[in-house]
Specification:
55% helix, single chain, two-stranded antiparallel sheet, alpha+beta, ten-stranded mixed β-sheet, 384 residues
Length: 384
């Protein structure tokens, strides 16, 4: 108990120095947590992928579509439970900076995604309206969409201005469900393309395939791709998670840079913390020598120094962790729909605390070593 009191009194002896060091720790731990959450947000789509969903696309590139008649052939494969078409739309709403995912889908698509919670009445209204659309809750809140609103979107891949009527707003089953997406009828897209751009009609970007047995995912994928071997449009079928990770790999260098920066921040605050503890130990050499003369051993001195360093690190980390949550909420609001899921995970908090403890321990190593090894005569000579 006396040692703990001594540790905290020592930590608060130079209040300005301790306060500035803790402030640096707070900023570092907060920055580290925020950067780690950005990386987690990038992987959110892959983490939320269901094991019973496969994605079939053109083997050459995602930009090359597949013929519509592939749908029935895929449906005939043993182990396939359901198939639905989906096309990436990539339109512009009011301003190019207003980015959000837009997909032309078949109604059967939603049966494969039980994590999208849509009220029955709204889904029926969507099914009846050729121009109907279903939007995510976060997307609706970002742009103020309400049931019955007409949303004009200028096509980029598919030319022209398209008007959609919001018929439903879906919520996520969990906080990690993406609620920033915009869905509308694939039939509406296809029928319009037959008039405007016939060469783009009856083409599918990807097929969502639901399978009955997740243990047969590889087998079913191979069977689907075997159907179209040596055809003008060969396919590549993979799990939804593998499909999502394929996108993430395109930005892997950016993610690596973000991770490196987050740990660089910790390294910098380690240097600051080490400097603080070194100054503290240098100023107290006389006190350490006096304690040794009174019979206190090296272990007591080391415990006192490590305790002080850890106390500062832990207090700074606690404040930093607490601040991470409101800052993450603010940051997500500023990013709009760029990060569909932006949530500080338990793993990130544990990593923040672990880094703070590591910084506290590492910063005390050399000062503790010096205090333990100091000779009483040399230490007393340092007084004044």
């Amino acid at each position: 108990m006396h040692l703990i009191k001594l540790i905290f009194r020592n930590a608060l002896r130079h209040k300005l120095r301790t306060g500035l060091t803790m402030l640096g720790l707070v900023v570092a731990i907060l920055s580290f947590g925020l950067l780690q959450t950005v990386v987690d947000a990038w992987y959110a789509g892959a983490d939320a992928a269901a094991p019973n969903r496969l994605i079939t696309r053109n083997a050459v590139s995602l930009m090359v579509p597949l013929p519509l008649h592939y749908r029935e052939k895929i449906r005939s494969v043993e182990g396939v439970k359901a198939v639905a078409a989906a096309n990436w739309f990539a339109g512009i709403y009011q301003d190019p900076k207003n980015f959000f995912p837009q997909f032309a889908v078949e109604p059967a698509y939603f049966a494969m995604f039980p994590e999208y919670r849509i009220p029955d009445a709204q889904f029926r209204a969507f099914a009846r309206d050729r121009k109907g659309a279903i939007v995510g809750r976060k997307l609706a809140q970002t742009y103020g969409f309400k049931i019955g609103d007409v949303v004009p979107i200028k096509g980029t891949i598919f030319p022209g201005t398209w008007s959609f009527v919001v018929r439903g707003i879906y919520d996520g089953a969990t906080a990690k469900t993406d609620t920033t997406q915009f869905f509308f009828h694939w039939d509406y897209l296809n029928e319009t393309l037959k008039v405007r751009s016939p060469t783009l009609a009856n083409k599918i970007g990807i097929f969502i395939v639901q399978i009955a047995d997740v243990d047969r995912a590889a087998e079913v994928s191979e069977a689907i791709d075997a159907l179209f071997d040596n055809s003008p449009a060969e396919t590549l079928t993979e799990t939804e998670k593998a499909f999502q990770i394929g996108f993430i790999r395109q930005t892997e260098a950016i993610l690596m840079a973000v991770r490196l920066v987050s740990f660089l921040v910790i390294f910098i605050i380690l240097a600051v913390m080490a400097n603080t503890m070194a100054m503290t130990a240098r100023e107290r050499l006389g006190e350490y020598a006096t304690l040794k003369a009174l019979g206190f051993g090296g272990g007591f001195l080391a415990a006192m120094i490590f305790g002080e360093s850890l106390a500062i690190a832990v207090m700074g980390s606690v404040i930093g962790v607490v601040c991470t949550f409101p800052v993450a909420v603010w940051f997500a609001a500023q990013m709009g729909t760029l990060f569909p899921v932006f949530e500080v995970s338990r793993e990130t908090v544990m990593l923040q605390v672990a880094c703070a403890v590591a910084v506290g321990m590492a910063a005390a190593l050399l000062p503790a070593r010096r205090a333990v090894r100091v000779r009483i005569v040399d230490g007393l000579r340092a007084i004044g």
